Structure formats: structure tokens, C-alpha cells
Amino acid sequence: MLMQQDGTRSADRPNRFAKGLAADRLTSAEYAENFADLHPPLTTHEAFVEAERCYFCHEPPCQKACPTGIDIAMFIRQIAAGNALGGAETIFSANVLGGMCARVCPTETLCEEACVRETAEGKPVKIGLLQRYATDTMMGTGKQPFKRAPVTGRRIAVVGAGPAGLACAHKLAELGHEVTLFEARDRLGGLNEYGIAAYKTVEGFAQKEVAFVLSIGGIEVRTGRRLGDNLDIAELRRDYDAVFLGIGLAGVNKLRLAGENSLQGVRDAVDFIAELRQAGDLSSLPVGRKVVVIGGGMTAIDAAVQSKRLGADEVTIVYRRGEAEMKASDYERELARNDGVLIRHFAVPKSLEGEAGNVTGLVCDRVIPKNGALLPAGESFRIEADMVLSAIGQILIADRLGNTESIEIAGGRIVVDAERRTSVPGIWAGGDCVVDGEDLTVVAVEDGKQAALSIDRSLGRSEERW
Hints:
By secondary structure, this protein is an alpha/beta fold. It has three domains: 44-140, Fumarate Reductase Iron-sulfur Protein, Chain B, domain 2, CATH 1.10.1060.10; 155-250 and 396-461, FAD/NAD(P)-binding domain (3-Layer(bba) Sandwich); 252-393, FAD/NAD(P)-binding domain. Helices cover 33% and strands 18% of the residues. It is built from 17 helices and 17 strands. The protein has a five-stranded parallel beta sheet with strand order 3-2-1-4-17, sandwiched between helices. The chain has a five-stranded parallel beta sheet with strand order 6-13-7-8-9. The longest helix has 21 residues, at 441-461.
């Protein structure tokens, strides 16, 4: 590696071949290219052409496939008629985070998979990109399309400013209630800000969307407030007319392998992605030459692809089951493979290897699926690695809910009914923290919206608190 006279690294001679963890592996141009917008937006002409491909079905199957029930045929028709702002209002009426969902939703398994053109031609209407075109047009005006109803005098606490909490807060404010939004971190947005691959949401879009949501008014924000630390549910129930929990899954599953907490280079993939998302300079982020990611979901894919795009030579995903069982979509798996990521199935981590305090490899046992179980194949293999990222699932930290009330938990998540009410009167919940949550932004948004409508109905039926 050549150095300049002042000791800094030459911009055109990156630290590409350094052993172990190292930053500055690529040139500035390579970083910019690797983390550019994954799906560049449509031009106005492209949007018109694509909108004309829609059949405007009478009972659109795409709408039925959308968890938030966006009237997709309507907003596409509005775009085709040159009314992108009207199309955006149609979208936001059902999904106030429609701009982010246009970027990160697995449309290939939701609305676009249901598109009749996909069935007939294998080429669906580009619903996600059209949705982005409309919502970006509206947000570019700096205007809020919704007005608040007359103030009701009711006060609701929303805990967690991720997709569920933001959607709930916006709808409650629109209905005329006063909302206090509590968030543990410095920035709002939840996984939209901290947990999504950087190339999917560029140019600070998550914070632009937060500003759009808050612009309706009636929402007070308090950051640095975490349940179990400086925020208590019993006090919230005393001080507010209703409480919504959109707290996500703050804990992570552990590998339970020796060296997990002591070897340099072994870390949680969620933290790795969050650090990347908050980095002002991608060249400052250290990454290994040989990276192993353990897991089969979206977090694993995002961590693997971003490791490769930071300059890792070899990236391998290790997953204990087969291709069909991976939670990551076909598109995301193909994206990883196109970036040179190797996916190895039916492999269970057995041990971490290290030298001088640094991880040097991962040993895995091969397994064989049989009658739904994974049986030992009787052989192991080793993958050389100087960085191991664990992406084996996130968990609810139930202790933070407190002991004053017994909120029902099942399978490590909060139990709610169809209206997102918990077992405790006056408390609603939604998003990743609830049972049967699908870990999708669009599902969390729907949870928040439905909870807000339920809270409004509950408060409207009686002047009495619970």
C-alpha cells in the first residue's frame, strides 16, 4: 500500500488487500457506485409509459395483495392522467409511509406477483416504481396532503418511532388527538433508518419521510426515552388516554458459541447495518476480506451484500435449512448471488476459530433434512473468515414492559387481537413486536393505522378512561 507524504492513503490506491478487518478498501468512486440507488426512479415519460401498461382491473388482485390495501389501479390511473399528486394522495391515504414501502417492500411477492400481466406475460406492471414516482412527486412539494380534524383533547402515547409507531401517530393526529411519540434512539424511523441496506434508501430518505409524517402537526417527539430505563408503562397509562407499543424487537439471538463475545470480527449483523447506515464516510468502515454471514433472512442478505460492496473479497452466507425455507425473497437472493455472495445451505455453525484475539474461521456441521427435522450428516467443514456476522433473528426484550401489568406474551412476542389491542385495557401494539408479525415495513404500517382507528373508536365510545 502506497502512502502519500502526509501519511494519508492515496485515493486511487485503496487498502484493498489488507488482511483482517480494514477500512478504505475501495476508491471513492467505487463506494459511490456500489451504494448508489438500487432502483433509480422513473422519469415522467417512463412513468406515463409504465402506467399505460396497467389494465385497471375492476377487482385488482394487486390491491388484495397489498397489506395496507392501497387502491393501486386508481393511483396508476391518476399517474396516467398526469395527476401524480392525486395518485400520491391515494397512496398516502392507505399507507402514510408509501414512499419507503415503494423502495423496500418485496413487491415481487406482493402486488407485482398478483399483477395479471405477471400471470400472462411474466412481466408485471412496475407498481413499486410507480408508487415511488407518485410519492416522491408529492413529497417534493413539501406539502402535507392531510388536515387534522378538530382537536379532541385526548392524549395518546406512542412508544417507538418505527413504521408502526409513525403510522399510528400520524393517523391519531389526523383524527384530532394529541400524540406524544417516544423513541429510544436519537433519530426516528426505526428499521427504516437503522436496519435497511443503504443502497435501498439513499440521500437520507428515511428522515425526509419522518419530517413528512410529523408535518401534519399534533405530534410531540421525545427521543432518548426507552421502556424499562426512563419510561414506564404504568406511568404512561396514568398520564395518557391510550398507549400504543411499536417497540420492535430490540434484542438479538445469540450463536451460543465460544468466542462470540471476545473474538475481534464477530458481531451482530443488525449492529453492523446500523453502523453502516449512520456512517458519514463509507471508507471509514472496517470490513473483512473473507466474511461469513449466518442466517437466511433479509438481514443476512443485506449484511452480506453490503460487506461485498464495502470491498470484501469473499462473502459466504451459511443457512441451516434449504433455499425454499429462506425468508429472504427470490429477488434478494439473486441480488446477493449477482454480487458474488455464496449461499451454503444445510449447515449449522459448530465453533468459531481464532488467533491472537481475532476470528479466523467458522466450523459448521452438515445436516440432512428428514421429516421436518435436521439430522447430523456426520461431517463438518471449515470456512476461513476474518469477519463473522450473526443474523439469526431478533427478539422482544419482555422485561422492558415492566411488572405492573401482565401483557400477554406468546412465542416471544406480544399477543394482540384483530384491532391490535393487547390483553391490558388501554394498551395497543403493532409491528415486529406482536405475534404473527411478518417483519415487513408495510405490515407494520397497517398495524399502526388499524391500532389508531381502534383507539379512536374506543375513545369516542366513552368519556371514561379504562
